[in-house]
Amino acid sequence: MTSLASPSASPVAIAGPLRDDDDDVIHLSEYLDILIDRKWLVTGITFVAVALGVAYALLATPIYQSNLLVQVEDSAPDAKSFLGDTGSLFDVKTPAIGEIQIIRSRMIMGGAVEATRLYIDAQPRYTPVIGEWLARRAKGLSEPGFLGMSGYVSGTEAIDIAKFDVPPEFEDQKPFTITAQADGQYTLAHPDLAEPLTGTVGKPLSQQVHGGTIVLIVSQLDGKPGAQFVVSRASVLATTEDLQKRIQLSEQGKQSNVISATLEDSDRDRLRRILNEIGAQYVHQNVERKAAEAEKTLEFLDGQLPEFKKQLESSEDAYANFRNKNGTVAFDEEAKAVLSQAVQLETKKLEAEQLRRDLLSRFTETNPKVRVIDGQIAAFRHELDGIDRRVSAMPVQQRDALRLERDVRVNGELYKSLLNSSLQLRLVKEGKVGNVRLLDKATEPKRPVKPQKPLVVALSLVLGLLTGISLAIVRSKMASGIRNPQEIEDRLGLNVYSVVPLAVEQEKLLQRIAGGAGGVQLLAVTEPGSVAIESLRNLRISLQLTLMESGNNRVLITGATPGVGKSFVSGNFAVIMAQAGKRVLLIDADLRKGHIQKAFGLPRQGGLADVLVGDMSTEQAIHTQVVPNLDVLTTGNYPVNPANMMLSSRLGDLLNAMSAQYDLVVIDSPPVLVAADAAAVAAHTGAILLVARDGLTQLGELNESVKRLAHAGQRVNGVVFNGMDLSRRHYGSYGYKYGGYRYTEYKYKEAT
Predict the structure, then answer these.
(1) Given a cut of 90, is residue 575 above it in pLDDT?
(2) Which of 112, 200, 389, 610 could make an S-S bridge to 636, C-beta 3.0–4.6 Å?
(3) Can you name the residues that pair with 250 across neighbouring β-strands?
């Protein structure tokens, strides 16, 4: 049904074209307009997002974080051996990154999982959504049940399971349900069990099932009869892999050899226990590894001691025999220096050879460590060859004495060093001391690290705003209705003769009409200073030039579809022209649903249809002087076939006769896309105006209307853009601009 309504607004008038430097502002203003248009959508989505964020911040399970520090120490500097540092035989220093991988290994993590029974997860069956939140604030046990569903709790219920062994097919599957009973008893249920098992707190429950045996020991069960607990049994491997992913390991500072192990968990006590157990497992394996390496090296040294002792005794016997035979030989200063140097080099060479044999037990000859030792041995031999040449130049008796004493000293030093190393290795083996230690143990954290409530609320606010703004823009872009009259000119090439703002006063007039108020209920009469009426006054200027060129004083005002406000424009424009001193006839040619008579307080019967069928004369049908200088011809009784009536010659004769009697004839016709009547009436007019409504009319509808009228041989002269809601635009009451036009508020002075 064609509406008389025009939407709410503030007064505006056309100024001049905008400058080119306004283009960017126009672009930004369009988005601002969209946000203002859909402010409730943005506000609603933001409110919902913030509400969800607050709910999450309050109801989410708190996550706590704790850590421990481990130091990887260097070997003791005073542990000397025949190879220098005793630890060099069994301690190859591992970089921090290597120690981190050891800590993350299944050996350490798996041991911690088994020691803390981390593969068992037992929790009360909390009331959905709010149960855990209530439990954190509860002071005692709750009554089981929620909305008729038994078992749910929201109090201080607790459970501790000392042992829970199940067949492999029950691991990593659906959880078990433990239900508290009276007198310290409970039942254990599972979908794959034929019937629940009954057990007693503190006593083992053992039941043979398919695939193996279920063994359960519940050491603590705090809950009223009917309270339920959810118990899951994961495999050790799955739990270990999960722990490996969760734990964060890093070196504190560069090359500090201090490793931090950080973990997060919802259970503070469990968090502390698992971290400390990881530390204990790591220290224990380090001690065991060092002891094992010491034992292996000790076995090697014990095998060498008899050989070195034999060499020492042999060299001592040879030197004793020489002295018995030749007496004591005195060495000059040069010989003493050569002897001391030879002893040192020979000792170092033998130490290097021993180290090479030890390395070859673990590495190949191409290993870089072995190659370094080979280079050192070659250097020692080269220096010893030089000393041997100097010794060979000495007298024979002095030369032999020097060589024999050299052998005694070298073998003695090596044997003493070997004994000392063996003693130190035994101390390492029996002392159970490694090269790592716990600096800081994990403690129970006091405050959770997640959720960070202020951050959650702030992010929900930002996300809500972004989502609301994005949705508002997307919905606006997807909306098919025209929002900017400039689109009509740019895309269809039609002139926009007038932009009629939304008039809030029109709603009151419609209510009065619906209430049966008599008289003229048109904005041009009741509110002549309205911005919408001022916009229609501007239409008069544009239309006068068009009518002068056409030589026809008849104007057809129509629309593409119903509800665009064509009757509002027709009625008010006719009144405006009459107020300007023109004799105007307003014809309601919408013989299907025309209702313009309501705005003038006139009866529908006795109108255009009656004249066209010959039941009445024009003088009888026309309501004269409804408004000074304005006559109105209503629709009359709705005919059965209005299209045929509009195609009759009577319509042309009638309009020709009326043109001679009036300065302007304004015709309100049916929508172009609804009926062919508009095209039939258009053939008798000098100007055709299409009414488009802000946000309702589509560009395609206007384009199709132009095509249909063109097929009938008629050209649309221009468009009236109706219902522009300035209150939702970025200029608000200060004005609105679009395309090359700017509308600014009019202020009328009161009459004095």
Answers:
(1) yes
(2) 610
(3) 260
Cα 63 to Cα 60, 244, 271, 275, distances in angstroms: 9, 18, 10, 15
Give the helix/strand (H/E) hosting 89. Answer: none
The residue extents of the domains of the chain are 120-233, 496-728
Q: Which amino acid is at 457?
A: V
Does residue 518 surpass a pLDDT of 80?
no
Residue with tokens 């009757």: 567
Of the candidates 676, 672, 704, the residue with the CA atom closest to the CA atom of residue 688? 672
Q: What is the dihedral of CA 710, 714, 718, 719, to 10 degrees?
A: -60
**Who's near 725: CB < 8 A, 6+ residues apart?**
7, 8, 9, 37, 501, 502, 694, 695
Handedness of CA 206, 212, 218, 223 (dihedral sign): negative
Contact in structure between 22 and 516 (CB atoms under 8 Å): no
- Output the pLDDT for position 98: 86
Q: At 295, is the pLDDT very low, low, confident or very high (cuts 50, 70, 90)?
A: confident
| Pairing assessment for the beta strands 630-633 and 584-588 based on DSSP bridges | parallel
What are the start-end ranges of the H helices in 117-168? 131-137
Q: Put the strands of the sheet holding 741-744 in their side by side order.
A: 13-14, 741-744, 735-738
pLDDT tens digits for range 468-510: 999 988 887 776 688 888 889 988 999 999 999 988 788 778 8
* Nearest residue to 584 via CA among 620, 617, 558, 547: 547
Measured N-to-C along each axis, helices 268-326 and 333-360 cross at an angle, to the nearest 10 degrees, of 140
- Largest Cα–Cα separation, the chain: 170
The dihedral of CA 407, 412, 417, 419: what is its sign? Answer: positive
Kindly state the percentage of the chain with pLDDT values over 70.
86
DSSP 191-246: TTSSS-EEEETTS-EEEEETTEEEEEEEEEEE--TT-EEEEEE--HHHHHHHHHHH
Residue 288 structure tokens: 């065991």
Strands 718-724 and 496-501, bridge-based pairing:
parallel
User: What is the pLDDT confidence band of residue 306, given thresholds at 50, 70 and 90?
Assistant: confident
Identity of the residue numbered 558:
T
Query: Could you tell me which residue, 362 or 458, shows the higher pLDDT?
Result: 458
- For residues 222 and 174, the answer to whether their CB atoms sit within 8 Å is no
CB of 37 within 8 A of CB of 728? Answer: yes
State pLDDT tens for residues 606-652: 899 999 998 999 999 999 999 999 999 999 988 888 888 888 889 99
- The three-state DSSP-derived secondary structure of 29-48 is HHHHHHHHHCHHHHHHHHHH
Q: What is the CATH number of domain 496-728?
A: 3.40.50.300
Which residues lie closer than 8 Å to 366 by C-beta, 6 or more apart? none
Is the pLDDT higher at 388 or at 657? Answer: 657
Instruction: Please check whether residue 558 is in contact with residue 683, taking contact to mean a CB–CB distance below 8 angstroms.
Output: no
Q: Treating both helix axes as pointing N-terminal to C-terminal, what angle do 106-116 and 96-104 enclose, rounded to 10 degrees? A: 40
* Residues 305 and 422 sit within 8 Å (Cβ to Cβ): yes
Q: Residue 333, exposed/middle/buried by CB under 10 A (0-12, 13-18, 19+)?
A: exposed
Token reading at 264: 């997060």
CB atoms within 10 A of CB 347: 19
Nearest to 485 by CA among 531, 528, 535, 533: 535
3-state helix, strand, coil in the chain (%, to 5): 50, 20, 30
Query: pLDDT (tens digit, 9 = 90+) per residue, 148-190?
Result: 788 999 999 999 999 999 999 999 999 999 999 999 999 999 9
Six-digit token string for 741: 């036009």
Question: Which are the contacts of 356, defined by CB distance < 8 A and separation ≥ 6?
Answer: 370, 373, 374, 377
Question: Quick check: pTM over 0.85?
Answer: no
**What are the structure tokens assigned to 236, written together?**
């050790």
The answer to whether 552 touches 686, Cβ cutoff 8 Å, is yes
